[in-house]
Every structure is written in C-alpha cells, then in structure tokens.
Amino acid sequence: MFDLNAVRAEFPILERRTYLNSCSLGALSHRSEAYLGEFTERWHDMGASAWYRHWLGRVEDLRGRVATFLGTTPRELALLPSTSAALAVITESVPARGRNRVVCTELDFPTLAYQWAVKPEIELVVLRSPDGIRIDPEQFEAVVDERTLFLATSHVFFTTGYAQDLGALAEIARGVGALSLIDGYQGAGQIPVTLPSTGVDFYTNGPLKWLCGGPGLAYLYVRDELVEALEPRITSWFATNRQFEFDLEGFEYRPDARRFELGTPALPTVHTALGGQEIVDEVGIEHIALRNRELTDRLMAGVRDAGLRVRSAEADHRTAIVMIHHDDPPGAVKHLASHDIIVDYRPGFVRVSPHFYNSEAEVDRCVEVLASYKG
Ligand SMILES: Cc1ncc(COP(=O)(O)O)c(C=O)c1O
After folding, report:
1. Of 82, 102, 269, 286, which is least packed with CB atoms within 10 Å of its CB?
2. Both 134 and 44 in a single domain?
C-alpha cells in the first residue's frame, strides 16, 4: 500500500513511544520541522520582509493543498485560528431569516453547541443518541424544519468514531431551507471527503489531529454559492479586498472565502501544517483510511480476545477512534504511559486512536499492557 518504514522514519515520536493518540494530536514529522526551520531562518534573516517575499506565499501554498485535499478550490477555503473561531464567524455571517432553531447532538464536541448556547434568542435542540454511538438521519429529519437555521453536527463523533453520512445531512437541511454546518475535525484526514459533492454548506477542519500539522489553525470550507452571499459581522483586515490600503472607510469584502478570516494566521502552524499535509497527500487518504481500518480491526479483535469490551460503530460507519470500556480509565492510561504507550481517556472509556504510521506490533503491545492492568 505504502512504505510503512519510510513513513515511520518521518515521525520521531514513534522511536521513543508507542503513540496511539492521533485523534488528540497527530505526530510531528521531520518534514514539518524542516518547514518550521525554514520559517525561523527567514525570520532571523529577513524580518518583516519575509512576509511579502515568502510567508504570504506559504499561506497560499497551504490553502491550495488543503483545498485540493478536500476536493474544493482555494476560493472556498478560509484559514482561522481554531474550529471555535470558524464556527463563530459562520454564526455571525448567516442572517436569521425569521429562524431561531439550531439542531445538534449530544455526541458533538461541545464547542459546536456552545456557539448557540450563549445566544438566548436561539432554541437549541440537542438530539440524544439511542446507543451512545450514533445518531440516525431520521432523528434530524424529525426536528429540522422551517424554523431551523442550522443543522450543526460532526462528521465523525469524537468519542465514538461514528462517521455520519454528510450527503444525507445536507439534504435534510436543504429540504427545509436550513443550512448544514459540519465540524469535521475528526473526519477529513482519517477518511476521504470531497466536500462539494456532499452538498454541505460549511465544513470545519484543521491540521492538529489526523493531518499531523499541529495547533493554531483551522480550515473553513464555505460552499461556493454562499461565499459571496454572506457578509460576516465579525471581521478583520484580512477579509477586505483593500487590505493594504489602510483606509478605515474603504472596507469591501473579498470575493472569496478570505472574507471570513479574522486576522494574521499562525505562521509557525502554516509551516508545520504544510509538512503534515504533504505526507498525508503522498501516502494518499484512500490508503490511510484502509490502513487505519486494518489497525482498528486488529485492535478491536485483540481487546475482545483479552476479555475487554469495545464500544464501536457498525463497520460502515466505523473510524479509527476505539473506545474500550474500563472501570478505571485514568489509572489504565497512567499504567500504559508507564510503559511508554500514549493513549487517552474519556469518562468510562480508554480511547485509542491508531493512525497510518502505527504498526501491528504497537497495537498488539497496547492491548497486552492494557490487559495486564489490574487497577
Ligand atoms: C470534533 C472536535 N471539534 C473541535 C475541537 C476543538 O476545536 P478548537 O480548534 O476550537 O479548539 C476538537 C478537539 O480538540 C474536536 O475533537
């Protein structure tokens, strides 16, 4: 599929630890470090003139690469400081049109729901999961109506790894004139996605986790037809066509998704993100998804053989976030860490997230050491 040893050699942490927590933070590569070195060297060498001669170009390199990766164009992609900022700018860009309902789910990452929890004028409907793993499209269908402004939910749920059907969600929203807003932080990077063909209106993602690019940036996709129709009510000098005219009275929105941007992007992250994205692109997202499925299947089988229980989505919706029932998750994670195995926990579960650079031996070792923990 790809040269695993060559890929592993890119990520120094794999020589030091058994690293199985990519859904929290993707591993740092030599490639990212080299880009970061280039950034700091130019800073030493050129100071602010590096902005015009190099760094603005790097920002556009990243935008172009991520746009291609998401199956879209740079025109539809904004760079923001975090998912939360990307969600906030969208909530401040869409007129209410007499609608005050937002539908999300109890399985979404809280920062999504918080956007409307702080707006008293909004009726926030939080769908409950029938099994703690998934939400069915029919549940959205039952409550997304003409009062609904946004259907806002995750691509992949962060504590269950369940991948939702974006096409179905987009259609449900569009059918009643609502907009679909998807938090894709746990999605693109571990499974393939071609955004325009899903029909979703907005999708956020970032380099931190599966894209191995570090903290400090988020990507915001805005569907082509909406880009110029929306006028954000929070803004910055990066959002105007006349950025370098410094004319207080000359604000004019850019004709592309940069109109959603909120100031200077984190340049160190632009560089580390380029390194991670290059590797992901070279390995190929189809290969990554297949590899992660192999590792996940092996992990789940091993855990079950060891007498532990896994909470898992059905095969068609499963991704590489594996939740293992446990009586003492913090203790188990500490025990694993004492054996140089890095995983994470959420209430009631040890959370293990392998990525394409992991080996079978690492997965097996994690299972063995976890099974040896007696509390
Ligand atoms: C699904 C999901 N959304 C959002 C976030 C965090 O977003 P932000 O960039 O605002 O910190 C995380 C994790 O950090 C996440 O897993």
Report:
1. 286
2. yes
What separation in Å is there between the alpha carbon of 29 and the centre of ligand 1? Answer: 21
Count how many domains the chain has. 2
The model carries a pTM of 0.97
Tell me if 277 CB under 6 Å of ligand 1. Answer: no
- 272 and 323 both lie in a single domain: no
Looking at the DSSP assignment, which residues form a beta bridge with residue 183?
154, 204
3 burial type by CB count under 10 A (0-12 exposed, 13-18 middle, 19+ buried): exposed
DSSP state of 253: B
Contact 105 CB / ligand 1 (< 6 Å)? no
Residues 42 and 17 reside in one and the same domain: no
Three-class DSSP category at 29: coil
185 with 230, same domain: the answer is yes
Residues with Cβ within 8 Å of 30's Cβ and at least 6 positions away in sequence, in order, are: 9, 10, 11, 12, 275
Percentage helix, strand, coil for the chain under 3-state DSSP, each rounded to 5: 45, 15, 40
User: Residue 12 sits in a domain of what CATH number?
Assistant: 3.90.1150.10
Q: Residue 375 pLDDT > 80, yes or no?
A: no
- Does residue 156 carry a pLDDT above 90? yes
Distance (Å) from CA 291 to ligand 1 centroid: 24
Q: Residue 187's pLDDT band (boundaries 50, 70, 90)?
A: very high
Among 109, 203, 269, 346, which is best to mutate for testing ligand 1, by the most ligand atoms less than 8 A from CB?
109
Residue of 83, 208, 351 to test ligand 1 pocket, by largest number of atoms within 8 Å of CB? 83
Residue 37 contacts by C-beta under 8 Å, 6 or more apart in sequence?
none
Look up residue 369 and give its two tokens: 């050491």
Domain that holds residue 210: 35-280
**Cβ partners under 8 Å of residue 276, min gap 6:** 26, 29, 31, 32, 207, 211, 212, 213, 214
